[in-house]
């Protein structure tokens, strides 16, 4: 497997159709969209480097294998901002650290832009995020699906610490 590097989506706009197809396949019900093309229109707004919204991609060789974004607003029911969104890794690269690389790179980018707290929602990855320092804020329903809203206070000194070991029971 090729080494994975994290880059700006702005460097690879040709990957927007691929990423929008991933999002449509994985989260169309949670996103409340009808087509991958509708998602692609939104992703085009993420081709920004030093402001939110922005996105990062995980690149292995010449292939995109994952992505994550920072967004100003994720959904209207929740007023806090900004949001970490769309963390996705292709199945053959899952459980290899790519998701953690993307998450840490997005956190680092947020801190560089002066962000001190991020929010996210997830339908099923609470344990992944909690292991990386995210806290549950609330449970809610989004498009008739249960999701967990999480938050993380970002501090430059904690971005590169190893997550605490889980207690064995």
Short account of what is shown:
The protein is of the alpha+beta class and 169 residues long.
Order of helices and strands: EHHEEEHEHEE
Rg computed from alpha carbons, rounded to a whole number of angstroms: 15 Å
Can you tell me the CATH class?
Answer: Alpha Beta
Mean pLDDT score, rounded?
88
* Main sheet summary: 4 strands, antiparallel
Count of DSSP strands: 7
Overall, the morphology is globular
CATH architecture: 3-Layer(aba) Sandwich
Count the domains.
Answer: 1
The strands making up the biggest β-sheet line up spatially as: 1-2-3-4
CATH topology: Aminopeptidase
Structural class: alpha+beta
Strand content: 25-35%
For the record, what is the CATH homologous superfamily label? Answer: Gcn5-related N-acetyltransferase (GNAT)
Q: What are the low-pLDDT stretches, counting only 5+ consecutive residues below 50?
A: none
Give me the number of helical elements.
Answer: 4
Query: Gap between N and C termini, in Å?
Result: 35 Å
Query: Helix content range of the residues, please?
Result: 25-40%
Outline the structure in words.
The protein is built from four helices and seven strands, in the order βααβββαβαββ. It is globular, with a radius of gyration of 15 Å. The longest helix has 16 residues, at 16-31. The protein has one domain (4-158): Gcn5-related N-acetyltransferase (GNAT) (Aminopeptidase, 3-Layer(aba) Sandwich). The chain is 27% helix and 30% strand. The protein has a four-stranded antiparallel beta sheet, sandwiched between helices. The protein has a three-stranded antiparallel beta sheet with strand order 5-7-6.
């Amino acid at each position: 497997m090729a080494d994975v590097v994290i880059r700006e989506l702005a460097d690879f706009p040709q990957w927007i159709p691929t990423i929008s197809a991933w999002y449509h396949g994985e989260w169309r019900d949670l996103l409340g969209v009808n087509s991958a093309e509708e998602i692609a229109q939104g992703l085009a707004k993420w081709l920004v480097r030093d402001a939110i919204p922005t996105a990062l991609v995980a690149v292995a060789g010449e292939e995109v294998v994952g992505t994550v974004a920072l967004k100003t607003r994720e959904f209207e029911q929740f007023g806090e901002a900004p949001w970490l969104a769309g963390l996705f890794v292709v199945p053959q690269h899952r459980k290899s650290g790519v998701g953690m690389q993307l998450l840490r790179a997005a956190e680092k980018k947020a801190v560089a832009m002066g962000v001190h707290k991020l929010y996210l929602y997830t339908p099923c990855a609470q344990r992944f995020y909690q292991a990386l320092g995210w806290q549950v804020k609330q449970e809610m329903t989004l498009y008739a699906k249960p999701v967990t809203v999480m938050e993380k206070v970002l501090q430059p000194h904690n971005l590169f610490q190893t997550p605490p070991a889980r207690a064995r029971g």
